[in-house]
Amino acid sequence: MAGKAKNSRKGKRTAVSTLTRLKLSKALALQQQGQLQEAKILYEDVLKEHPDHFDSLHLLGLIALQGGDYYQAAKLISKAVDIYPHNPAFFYHLGVALQELGELDGAMTSYDLATALKPDFTEAWYNWGNALQKGERFDEAVTCYDKVLADKGNFAEAHYNRAMALKGLKKYEEALPAYDQAIALKPDYGEAYFGRGNALAELKRPLDALTDYDHALSRRPDYAEAYLGRGTVLQEMKKFDEALASYDQAIALNPDYAEAYLGRGSALQEMERLDEALTNYDQALAFKPDFVDAHLKRGTALEKKDLWEPALDSYTKAATIRPGEARIFFLCGNVLQKLRHYEAALASYDEAIALQPDNAGTYINRSNPLRELQRYDEALLSCDQAIAINPEFAGAYNNRGYIRHSINQPEAAIADYDRAIALNPDYAEAYSNRGNVFNALGQWDMALGDYDRAIALKPDMAGAHWNKSAFLLLTGQFTEGWKLHEWRWQREDFAPLKRTFPQPLWQGEDSLAGKTILLHSEQGLGDTIQFCRYIPLVASLGARVILEVEEVLIPILKSMEGVEKIIAKGRALPDFDFLDCPLKVLPDFDYHCPLMSLPLAFGTELHTIPPAPQYLHASPEKLTYWQDKLGKKTKPRVGLVWSGRKTHGNDHNRSITLAEWLPYLPAGYQYVNLQKDIREADEETLQKHGDIFRCDHDLHDFSDTAALCTLMDVVISVDTSVAHLSGALGKPTWILLPFVPDWRWLLDRKDSPWYPSVTLYRQPQLGDWNSVFAEVKNDLLAMKDAADLNT
């Protein structure tokens, strides 16, 4: 660590007169007596006569240093050093001045040169250690303190600072003896008790840490930092009330103590008192606007309140203040993912990876937006990168299994889930996800076993209950299935769909006679159409029914039996537009119920599904309009729907492309496209086959689709809302289903108890659409033959 002194410019003492020597002696005596101003005048007199008198420059610099004029001190002593670079005291005092000015590199260089000239210069080693510690060069600081203590073992402050440097290196066990030595030498050393308390807290010895904080406070009752440390330990011990009291004492001593407000907010957040926590974080930021930890904690509290946009704002502010911290970009990515800003989430995770390339967790979270963007190869690569970093990371295998299941690689998905479970036998999510793969393969016992295992491991895991409910409903076990179906409201992805009202939820137990009930949609358009069949049953209980659904469905549902008022979903309550009547105030309602909770409320079993051969009707005006558009009928008409919503979680199983279906559509029919949204690949196919009548540009709402369905001889659709609409209209409807369909279509039957006019065409094995197309083709040919016979 030793440096080399600079070459001398002159390097020799200036010859002075006897009078000058007398002045210097007198000045030095005055300085030693504390008469600094008088000494200063004499030194300045000497320098007027001898400008290069380095002793006078040094001593005048010391007066400036004693007076707190560190800039002038550094200027004068630097000049002395430049003239005579052989005096270690010159370099030492220059280091002190530079250290006070915050010029740590210059100070450390000066201490280095001082100790090179005088290896046993204890004060220089000590101050050098302090400067190194301030610059977070803890290893070198420890070396300096060791030099000090080798010469002066009873130096309590050196033991204390050595302990602090070891703490900076996270060597807490090694720090403890150093704190002990400092306290032994100086029993009233409050800072040493406080430091030892911090080290003990890091070593998870909370009771010992509290004892030391109390020792520190007994010696320094105004020690706000010790109250903060005490509060932090109490909070970790889950003694929240005591922790709050300790934080309060810290704030009483230091009213603008941002760190104490942060601690207080953190304790309140753990107590689920989120609004109070946010108030404390705001208070911390009022005193310290650039307090990154307060911004981050504020963001986590806002996340708990599902306030994603404000949480993102907090994290973004933290990233602006500390742009080099990967964790902040990771948190931003998580919130952007929640907000479904997938491209932005991906960019944030990429920024985190650029700053911290070896964090497996970031790669795993990065795979989520890639999966949502259907960039499956990249999502799998991101999982692979996580596994390469940490081959024992169970979560990485779980994520990779989920993606592989999404792209119809069930065996590979099961292998990943098996690995995740082997690494973490209590991994409830992996069991539940593996159950979904077994379910998709039709391995029912295996699926049910995995769902039950997940629930046993984590009884409040909404996803596992939800998955089991779908399995039970699919297999016709309605009693338990409907009950577990209510777990959907505990799922994170259902949070935006949940409605909260002061009025109670109707669950079938309370009388509705003379009451008003608000029934509201929740999930897909097909779900709304399917479960509207319960409205007449609700009305038959003496209830006045207000129905809230998506605006696109209102024209087809407003005339449904039992509906007194209908409103568009998303309109403010209680003020809304009824669409079929002037703007008015919503009448008070007594109960509310989501449409998909009505089967539970009515205790629906397979044999008690409300019989509804036709409960929706097309508008006469729309029928006339579309009859004119279609023209004179010369062939049987077949309505086609081959794909649903692209963002649907099971779209890869339920949707097909028009190109793969076309070869199985026999001639002799007028084929009519009934779907509004056309994907890019299908657009090209449609343009090449102009014989398919296109309606997509003229479909404004479901009243248009309903009229078209009514005008068809048969509607053939994959599992989408149009299939439900056609079934509710009582039209012959053929629905093409994957090997394991959505739960409502049950198993091993051609018919549907929900829609008497529906015929189901099922894949005989996973992914086998060609067998389905062939069966549909045969039935179309048979239908045409029957029609030809009739004519």
Structure characterization notes:
The structure is a single chain. The chain is α/β, with parallel strands linked by helices and 791 residues long. It folds into 4 domains: 1-117, Tetratricopeptide repeat domain (Serine Threonine Protein Phosphatase 5, Tetratricopeptide repeat), CATH 1.25.40.10; 320-495, Alpha Horseshoe (Serine Threonine Protein Phosphatase 5, Tetratricopeptide repeat), CATH 1.25.40.10; 499-608, Rossmann fold; 620-790, Rossmann fold (3-Layer(aba) Sandwich), CATH 3.40.50. 58% of the residues lie in helices and 6% in strands. A 5-stranded parallel beta sheet has the order 8-7-9-10-11, sandwiched between helices. It has a 4-stranded parallel beta sheet with strand order 3-2-1-6. 44% of the residues are buried.
Considering DSSP H and I runs of 4 or more, what fraction of the residues is helical?
Answer: 55-70%
CATH superfamily of the largest domain: Tetratricopeptide repeat domain
Largest sheet: 5 strands, parallel
The number of distinct helices, counting runs of at least 4 residues, comes to 39
Architecture of the largest domain in CATH?
Alpha Horseshoe
Class by alpha and beta content:
alpha/beta
